[in-house]
């Protein structure tokens, strides 16, 4: 059947809304009951290091996965944008695996990085959406992300499906390396299986995001802050806003605020803080207070407990569902997508085909 907008105003809105369904598909492909099901040879017992390489939004999926591989599996993880990796000629351990993340599977820099790594590492793994692509063909094992055709140049459902596959890989690594007992593994698998329902709940932030976008669309710059595995989600929020609305945006690690970007803060600066109520939340609250003391306008994206704990002084809260455990970044991607989408709509830019960008960059 032909790909159409299915009643949505833009492909991006349709692709955002498809996420609960495609995430359900991909997770049930790789998780059967309490078992992780991966192709033969996907055993991490002897692996000493992971190298993740990708571009753009796929790179940010890899960035979240670095936190997961290190935290869950105790597996050291290097991460690089493909254009830097390929020319730096990094030394690679022959016991390591290279993981190449790409929606199209045709990105020239990522493909060249794969060709560089081949023969130097024990295994190359592709996390790809297009099963017939060059990266799917040239990796030892290609794992489909099963997001379906993504038309909008800016990636949404392909990103969250990449995260789902990478989460499965991190759990498999933890299991193979004996880092999780059965009960802990079952708990994480239950968290992961619960993600599509939470993403479905997160879709209901659309109305709030649409209202907040009126405000964001009048800003010249927006800062996004996050910590831990939500830091790459903040980077993704900034990337999306730049791509779609042409507003200058930067993502920063919350703790790094005081080392630079705090100098930019005044009453005209919206600061989007991506922070579920977790064990580091107190530190994030103190970062927000630093912003508010300089009259920065905080948009706090958190769960009900986080918003309550943050107290007064916040310009606007955006309430997220609770839950998801370590896999919360997948859920928090949704308001990042909607904020960028509705800001672009408010500005009247071309949402599905932003200026100067291409869906798949097959030249250097
Ligand atoms: C382009 C697209 C991005 C995408 C990046 C990597 O810049 O506009 O949306 O994230 O390429 O593409 P890939 O197909 O390798 O994931």
Shape: globular
Give the bound compounds. Answer: 6-O-phosphono-alpha-D-glucopyranose
The rounded Rg comes to 20 Å
**How would you spell out the order of helices and strands?**
HHEEEHEHEHEHEHHHHEHEEHEHEH
* Individual helix count: 14
**Sheet with most strands:** 5 strands, parallel
**Spatial arrangement of strands, main beta sheet:** 4-3-5-6-7
How would you describe the overall organization of this protein?
- It is a single chain.
- Helices cover 45% and strands 16% of the residues.
- It has 364 residues and is an alpha/beta fold.
- The strands form 3 sheets. A 5-stranded parallel beta sheet has the order 4-3-5-6-7, sandwiched between helices. The chain has a 5-stranded parallel beta sheet with strand order 9-8-10-11-12, sandwiched between helices. The protein has a two-stranded antiparallel sheet with strand order 1-2.
- Helix 5 links the parallel strand 5 and strand 6.
- It is globular, with a radius of gyration of 20 Å.
- Bound molecules: 6-O-phosphono-alpha-D-glucopyranose.
- The site of 6-O-phosphono-alpha-D-glucopyranose has 16 residues, from helix 3.
SSE inventory with pairings:
Blueprint: H1 11-17, H2 19-30, E1 31-32, E2 35-36, E3 50-54, H3 56-73, E4 77-81, H4 82-88, E5 97-102, H5 108-117, E6 123-128, H6 134-138, E7 141-144, H7 157-176, H8 182-193, H9 195-202, H10 206-216, E8 221-226, H11 231-245, E9 248-253, E10 270-274, H12 281-293, E11 297-303, H13 304-310, E12 316-320, H14 328-347
The structure holds 6-O-phosphono-alpha-D-glucopyranose.
């Amino acid at each position: 059947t032909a790909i159409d907008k299915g009643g949505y105003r833009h492909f991006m809105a349709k692709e955002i809304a498809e996420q609960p369904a495609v995430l359900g598909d991909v997770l049930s492909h790789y998780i059967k009951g309490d078992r992780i099901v991966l192709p033969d040879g996907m055993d991490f017992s002897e692996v000493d290091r992971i190298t993740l390489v990708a571009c753009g939004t796929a790179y940010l999926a890899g960035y979240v996965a670095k936190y997961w591989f290190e935290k869950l599996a105790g597996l050291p993880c290097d991460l690089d944008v493909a254009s830097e990796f390929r020319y730096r000629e990094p030394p690679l351990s022959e016991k390591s695996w290279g993981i190449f993340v790409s929606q199209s599977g045709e990105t020239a820099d990522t493909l060249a990085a794969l060709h560089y790594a081949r023969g130097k590492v024990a295994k190359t793994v592709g996390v790809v959406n297009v099963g017939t692509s060059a990266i799917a063909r040239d990796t030892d094992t290609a794992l489909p992300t099963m997001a379906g055709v993504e038309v909008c140049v800016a990636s949404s459902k392909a990103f969250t499906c990449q995260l789902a596959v990478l989460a499965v890989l991190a759990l498999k690594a933890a299991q193979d390396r004996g880092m999780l007992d059965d009960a802990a593994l079952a708990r994480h698998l239950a968290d992961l299986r619960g993600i599509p329902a939470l993403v479905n709940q997160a879709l209901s932030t659309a109305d709030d995001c649409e209202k907040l976008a009126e405000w964001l669309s009048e800003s010249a710059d927006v800062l996004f802050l996050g910590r831990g595995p939500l830091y790459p989600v903040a980077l993704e929020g900034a990337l999306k806003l730049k791509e779609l609305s042409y507003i200058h945006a930067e993502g920063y690690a919350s703790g790094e605020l005081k080392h630079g970007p705090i100098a930019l803060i005044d009453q005209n600066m919206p600061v989007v803080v991506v922070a579920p109520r977790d064990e580091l939340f107190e530190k994030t609250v103190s970062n927000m207070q630093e912003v508010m003391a300089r009259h920065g306008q905080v948009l706090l994206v958190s769960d009900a407990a986080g918003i309550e704990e943050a107290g007064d002084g916040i310009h606007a809260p955006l309430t997220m569902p609770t839950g998801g455990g370590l896999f919360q970044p997948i859920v928090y991607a949704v308001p990042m997508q909607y904020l960028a989408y509705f800001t672009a709509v408010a500005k009247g830019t071309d949402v599905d085909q932003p200026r100067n960008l291409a869906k798949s960059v097959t030249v250097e």
